[in-house]
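Assemble and predict.
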Amino acid sequence: MSQLKAWRAAIVHCIADPKDVGIDAAYEYFEDGLLVVKGDKIHALGDATQLIPTLPNDLAIEHHPDAIITPGFIDTHIHYPQTDMIGSYGEQLLTWLNTYTFPEESKFSDKAYARDVADRFLKELLRNGTTTALVFGTVHKVSVDAFFEASEVHNLRMICGKVMMDRNAPGYLTDTPESSYKESKELIDAWHNKGRLHYAITPRFAPTSSDEQLKLAGKLLSEYDDVYLHTHLSENKDECAWVQGLFPKSKNYLDVYDQHKLLSERSVFAHGIHLCDSEYHRLHETGSAISFCPTSNLFIGSGLFKLSKAEEHNVNVGLGTDVGGGTSFSMLQTMNEAYKVIQLQNENLSPIKSLYLSTLGGAKALRLEGKVGNLAVGTEADFVILDTRGTPLLESRLALSKNIEESLFVFMTIGDDRAIQATYSAGQCVHKR
Ligand code: GUN
Ligand code: ZN
């Protein structure tokens, strides 16, 4: 019996950033493609009619004439503990946090509760074709244990961390600089690089950490080669003014993190809406990345992310849902809202750039390129089968599509979880509709 498995369908993936090489050179498309997987890795990719004769006769081929295969989606910013508070009405960031978020997050001191939410959260990600995510836990250490234990079951490439938060939050949700350092370190030692899992040092945002806590976060970051730093940056105008008041010696919001040595090639900052040129420049210089979270930015009224500014300064950008500030687990729906955010600034977001941001661009932002993000031979077999007949409207609209770019755009405008026929992680099926 051959160890190989193969999927035959239309296949599309990005191989570069359209900003660097132009749209046409940024992707590969096989109208009648074959994706061959050996164990957990991609073994071959190409035109079905050319590849099949080179492969063993007993090769099992799953044929999907009505499907498009893409890489698994990468969500560069999401909060698993906010799964059950999605769609909380009527507030902007700071009131939203106090009214809805903090009370919900308090429940995660209970590990059984955390595990139940983590299981449902991961199921929701996989139903939506997301195979990798950079994930906030809560301040409770057990929330991260529960998340990693749940991720291990499906062998997912996931990044998570315990929130560090020692001020400006309810007492039931705060830690101390020392306890947050110690618990984060214990979690790194237990989980970082265990199988496909990675740890992110996770100060919530500047207002909820003292100087001392941010300093210890920077110390921890310097003690490991490859752990991540994950936080929020310049999301909301009131938040930015608050940060200026709390850290009067800082030149700007990013400088608070910079002064505490939190900028690195593995640092990911969610939102980055209200930034000045020197902040973009410093993000670029340090190899830090921004997670663009359009559904959240619209829902909590934060503002419009300036993708062209980030591009001009060569800052790495990925796409994030930011559930529960964000309103959908679907990266297709996140691309839909991203398009509109860019439209409102009189610019265009091409479907190939959107695909890039939610796959290879996300992988680059997370320094996981070469492992996940596209379907290159040797990378991990994380992929999605998109069903052109997922809904009656998708079927009728896609029947009129003239090319792959138009088809992708239709998927990312009217598609959602119903378009995801199956999701594979490391070669194994982890969701089938
Ligand atoms: N800033 C600090 N905490 C949060 C959070 O939980 N969600 C969002 N969107 N922004 C934040
Ligand atoms: Zn967030």
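DSSP finds 17 helices and 16 strands in the chain.
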